[in-house]
Specification:
Blueprint: H1 3-6, H2 14-21, E1 28-31, E2 38-40, E3 43-45, E4 55-58, H3 63-70, E5 77-78, E6 86-94, H4 101-110, E7 116-119, E8 125-136, H5 137-150, E9 157-159, E10 169-170, H6 191-200, H7 205-213, H8 225-238, H9 245-261, H10 267-280, H11 285-299, E11 317-324, E12 330-335, E13 339-344, H12 345-349, H13 351-361, H14 371-382, E14 386-389, H15 396-409, E15 426-428, E16 433-436, H16 438-445, H17 456-464, E17 473-480, E18 483-491
């Protein structure tokens, strides 16, 4: 066999690494006829009008089949379940075709969930969970169901199912970027990046079991006053002494019922947390659910003050979200009973300026607090503050990448690498790289008002933040016209397929008459 035909056998090849990562059924795999793919409504179906399409094939999904899959020759489907009913991976199939994949990837990152996100065949999302051990099917299924709720998609399908053999799943990497991993910044992962992220987030068998039993609290309740109170109450119930537990649980559930009535927290989150805490304290499920539901029911008859509990005298902070990626530090502050307001952090720390903005934007008038008291209130909220990335088009990084892409794609390109000395980027199609001098890009970037005053170090730092060193970008030296020249290079695939062939040809020039 030639080297080309046997490359997939090498342990470090993408095909072999994916084969090891997605080990599952060893006696069968799946495939389908690419020509039978058709759009039905908003869903990409593998079946033709007569129902023919997906095929169950005898035999394991070998590295050779993975190589054909990655080359776009033959699609590959793998079932996560081994013949003994155990698995090492599972997937949450979010069959939503207007899904904001970068936003979902940011949620996974922010919540530190052990998932890797990829685009599905139909444009939805697949959130993959990987284990270092072979896990019982029921545990993997329960862990996936719990994680799906934390993603805000509790009703989607998960594989493997809780029982039965289930279906095989279309694998990632088909035709490179059609089914690829998605980074929190919205960029696409290479196959190697996907595998690295999956290995990094692999969970042990005890961790999978813990995920399967951990109650899910909707992220919308975290960081709020009511959410923090719920966590404190749950901890108090868990450590309560035997005597008086029922009265304690009822009373605390009643307190939370007031918050539920004021629409400060989700009722399901409260029931889950308090019942779980009560059972940890030694009560049976029937006892716990009875006390919790009775308390909530009575508390909802006495709602907490929906205008912040203080008659509007001082601003109450429910939650702070720190927005990252902008030119200045912005905070989105949830003011209890009035809504959200977004403003620079320096204005939040000044209570008089904060109150002025609340009056202008929320039509809420508050009395001014003493500086120390206001700082204490903000520090309490900052202990559980969340971060959220601004949309790419609103960030400095997004504007920087747009300028970089324009520099590499809109300028006249060099026909030979020596022409880099003429301030032209050189596209090496064979290597899949774009070469340029840093000084030339710096000069181009300084034409933008946004980057006019940025230091060379700052520009270099942003350039290095484009991707992975040695994969997406790097530095090298070339002998150009007898002189050693330092060049930067970027992976041309970063520019979404804008290659040398995308250049607009010069208009033809009529030859002069003889």
């Amino acid at each position: 066999m030639t080297e080309a035909l046997t490359s997939y056998l090498h342990p470090t090849s993408p095909a072999h690494r994916l084969y090891e990562l997605f080990r599952g059924a060893e006696t069968r795999h799946g495939t389908y006829d690419q020509k039978r793919l058709r759009l039905v409504g908003s869903k990409m179906e593998m079946k033709d009008e007569s129902g023919k399409g997906p095929q169950d094939v005898k035999g394991p999904p070998t590295p050779e089949l993975w190589e054909k899959h990655l080359a776009g020759v033959r699609p590959l489907g793998v079932s996560p379940l081994r013949e003994d009913g155990k698995c090492r991976w599972g997937v949450i199939d979010i069959d939503v075709y207007d899904l904001n994949l970068p936003q979902l990837a940011q949620l996974i990152e922010r919540e530190e969930l052990p998932l890797v996100l990829s685009r599905s065949k139909s444009g939805g999302g697949h959130a993959w969970l990987f284990s270092t051990d072979w896990v019982p099917q029921a545990d993997m299924s329960s862990a996936l169901t719990s994680l799906a709720s934390r993603l805000g998609h509790p009703d989607v399908e998960t594989y493997p199912p809780s029982s039965g053999s289930g279906n095989w799943m279309n694998m990632i990497g088909w035709k490179s970027t059609e089914r690829c991993g998605i980074k929190p910044n919205g960029l696409e992962m290479s196959v190697s990046e996907f595998v690295s992220a999956a290995v990094k987030r692999q969970q042990s068998l005890p961790a999978i079991s813990a995920l399967a039993t951990k109650p899910s609290q909707p992220t919308s309740t975290r960081g709020t006053v009511a959410g923090r109170q719920l966590l404190q109450i749950a901890a108090e119930i868990t450590s309560a002494a035997t005597g008086g537990r029922a009265k304690l649980i009822y009373g605390k559930a009643k307190d939370m019922g007031r918050h539920i009535a004021a629409e400060r927290i989700d009722e399901v989150a409260v029931i889950d947390a308090l019942v779980d805490a009560s059972m940890r304290a030694g009560l049976s499920y029937s006892e716990a659910i009875g006390h919790v539901r009775n308390g909530i029911k009575d508390g909802k008859q006495e709602p907490a003050d929906s205008r912040g509990g203080n008659g509007g005298r001082y601003a109450q902070i429910d939650k702070i979200v720190i927005l990252t990626g902008g030119e200045e530090k912005l905070w989105r502050v949830s003011v209890s009973g009035y809504g959200d307001i977004t403003l620079p952090a320096k204005y939040v720390w000044r209570n008089d300026l904060f109150n002025q903005r609340c009056a202008e934007e929320l039509r809420a008038g508050f009395r001014q607090m003493k500086a120390d008291a206001w700082a204490d209130r903000l520090n309490d909220a900052l202990e559980v503050a969340e971060t959220e990335a601004l949309p790419r088009e609103e960030t400095v990084e997004g504007a920087f990448f747009d300028c970089l892409q324009a520099f590499c794609t809109d300028k006249h390109r060099a026909y030979a690498i020596e022409e880099v000395l003429w301030r032209k980027p050189f596209w090496d199609d064979d290597a899949g790289r774009v070469y340029f001098r840093f000084a030339d890009f710096l000069s181009y970037l300084r034409e933008s008002v946004l980057f006019k005053g940025m230091t060379m170090h700052g520009i270099g730092r942003m350039l290095r933040g484009i991707g992975h060193e040695g994969v997406d970008l790097g530095k090298t030296t070339k002998k150009l016209k007898g002189k050693t020249t330092e060049l930067y290079w970027l992976r041309s695939g970063l520019f979404e397929g804008v290659g040398a062939e995308a250049q607009v040809a010069l208009p033809p020039i009529d030859r002069p008459p003889l």
